[in-house]
Amino acid sequence: MNIAFLAHDKKKELMVQFCTAYKSVLSKHELHATATTGRLIADNTGLPVDLLLSHKQGGHQQINARIAYNEIDLVLLFTDPNTVDPRDDSQMVETIRHCDKHNVPVATNLASAEMLIMGLQRGDLDWREMLRSKTKY
Hints:
Layout: E1 2-7, H1 12-21, H2 23-26, E2 30-33, H3 35-45, E3 49-51, H4 59-68, E4 74-78, H5 86-101, E5 106-107, H6 110-122, H7 127-134
């Protein structure tokens, strides 16, 4: 499975803690992240992470494009509900919209991320691999 990670600045440490706690599950999958988030995950967990552009340079758009081409199976997007930057908010909303449009599971907080990771571990998301193999371009 291809998993994408994005996090608001105030949620990056929580993302690192999450990845540390679920390192054994995540190590079996391909991980993709915007630059700063991905570097923090890789440096703190030792997990290999495909680093995309930073948020401000278009990392969100890269992930959205991969979602549209059915190359991402799961998105963990830790948002800060207290953000005051409308640009940050609109890019997060756009990623969620892409996930909804292309039927990609997305978690926006720790509780939903844990539910998806536990489902991933049980095999509940294996349907994504079958879907991806049928829609190769």
